[in-house]
Design a protein that fits this description.
This protein has 146 residues and is mainly β. The protein has 1 helix and 8 strands.
Amino acid sequence: MAYVLGMNAKLYYNTGSYASPTWTEISNVRDVTLSLERGDSDITTRGGGGWRQSVATIADGSVDFQMVWDTTDTAFSAIKTAFIDATTVEFLVLDGSSSTSGNQGLRATMAVTSFSRNEGLEDALTVDVSAKTAYSDNAPAWYSVP
């Protein structure tokens, strides 16, 4: 049985273009959650034998993570700027390194919709970040490292 530890997964953002991406690892990141969901439509018929029947519809993707508040960190600054300026960031959420063939995850242009600073009395300042798939010329896609 193969498994991947969460600490070996990677979160990247694109500092290049979509056609020629430069994946830069976001190393100042703590717990990451990639959420993929689909809506559903009720298509129940009399032929369903008394069971409700559904079909999957539109997909929804988001990534939530925490960063240490570090204004000298380039990735932190890029994500903060995207939130402040209401611009997008292209993320790659992988189960390992972007240089290892076969690793996979979501590639998507996302809007940073939440950037909440935590100020625990005995803790380092951190920020909780939420990003959701955004309007883009390039649809989100499941990506496998070639």
